[in-house]
Amino acid sequence: xxxxxxxxxxLAPKVDLPxxxxxxxxxxxxxxKMGDYAFPAFALAKVMHKNPAEIAKEIxxxxxxxxxxxxxxxxxxxxxxxxxxxxxxxxxxxxxxxxEHFGDQKLGTGNVPIDMSxxxxxxxxxxxxxxxxxxxxxxxxTLQKVGYTPVKINFLGDYGTQFGKLIAAYKHWGNxxxxxxxxxxxxxxxxxxxxxxxEKHPELDDEGRxxxxxxxxxxxxxxxxxxxxxxxxxxDFKRIYKDLGVEFDSYxxxxxFNDKMxxxxxxxKQKDLLHESQGAQVVDMxxxxxxxxxxxxxxxxxxxxxxxxxxxxxxxxxNFVKMLYVVGNExxxxxxxxxTVLKKMGYxxxxxxxxxxxxxxxxxxxxxxxxxxxxxxxxxxxxDAVALAQKxxxxxxxxxxxxxxxAHDVGVGAVIFHDLKNDRTDNFDFDxxxxxRFEGDTGPYVQYTNARAQSVxxxxxxxxxxxxxxxxxxxxxxSFSVAKALADFPRIIARSSDKFEPSIIAKYALDLAKKFxxxxxxxxxxxxxxxxxxxxxxxxxxxxxxxESLRLxxxxxxxxx
Length: 561
Prior knowledge:
Blueprint: H1 3-11, H2 19-25, E1 37-40, H3 42-48, H4 52-61, E2 68-74, E3 77-82, H5 84-98, E4 111-115, H6 127-145, E5 149-153, H7 161-173, H8 176-181, H9 183-200, H10 203-216, H11 220-244, H12 261-270, E6 274-277, E7 280-283, E8 292-295, H13 303-318, E9 323-326, H14 332-344, E10 353-356, E11 361-363, E12 366-367, H15 378-396, H16 403-421, E13 428-429, H17 432-435, H18 443-462, H19 477-487, H20 489-499, H21 503-522, H22 532-553
Parallel strand pairs: 4-5, 4-9, 9-10, 11-13
Antiparallel strand pairs: 1-3, 2-3, 6-7, 7-8, 11-12
């Protein structure tokens, strides 16, 4: 039973409003003592020419339902208190019957390419890449749960003027032996040195541009160095993705679209959309807007041209129903231009392209920058997080089996969870000690709560007790608080998928964990009485939903910690 729908059905014959309007008006009281749903009578005051409090009183007196233990007027609101026993029984039955499929929905179908992560080759992955990677991964899992087929695309930054600079840097200061020993770190060192030297010797930038032009023209030496840089980078990236538990359906990067840009330029010309401005080729964006740059005055391509080519290729390859770009806030204008140009070209499906922006990770309040070398490497952060988790596990549970695996799940999970619990568009400061704590609003706290629930179930099994759905009779406030949160899980999934917002699930997992820990502290779960099997059903249901919440965030849930 959907209790909100039940409220709508009860109210529909009594108020002169369409059901959709009633559903939209229904609120959740901030104070749980006021009930679980509230209908504001203000909307009826004009039509009925009465005080909203009088209207609420009249409506409440006409309503009754076994689904609600109390229906009463509180000022201008009609408040509905759910029947505890009914909600607990129904929710636990649904969760334990459907298990990890609880919350599955059919909100849509079809392919959804997600452009995410996209690090630049020849540079170590930094904390800056964490956001796009884990946000995209979580959105993919959530969209899959509601019926879509996500296609995770790693649009590698494997082309552009920066590779001309890197080749120039390698030719000046690099040697093959060093690169073979530690490819990424040495290539990165050359890149940082190039920028430092270019500030003193601006002619280096011209050299970098010349090497990029050679690369574009297919010069054998430039192409060979570029391919080598790409291969060694991918090996390193895949190792880190494995650590994060993230896989991709495509690694087609910018270079793949080199031969697909001229057809875009030709089509823009053919459709009379391209014109010259200061030697460059641009598309007009409308009044008071800067034009969109398609080809620079020196004849080289730009990101926008490549992204148009990639969008056309993806539509042809995947026939997508929507396409997402999980890219930082600062790129907002780029995606406005991408959609506008595609629409001008006559591709109405551009309406289903969504920029999914996110804020910055700072450290000590300062932005991280690759160019200046003040960067925090993701690989090191993950290793440090695992070591911190290992240290805490050794203190709390030195005899734990699979200690290494659990430390990995907790350390890496802590970093992912910390990122995803923040609203996507917010900036946040990263402090590893805070992130890997077992207390507070952290991933380890949610994991520990789930491990606690699993521990209860193991102890019960030793008593020959197990969760049972027959004769569920729980109606106490602690059980109701947990069950009500469990019942909300499908709504949380729907909201998260609709808004492309993983933090909705992360905040829900924290809330459910807190409610279960209060239950655990106030109820003697393993007392051997007629309700023990029902209490164990609540414990198992909580573990199922916590585990699934963490899975949707890309975080593992160890059964012991």
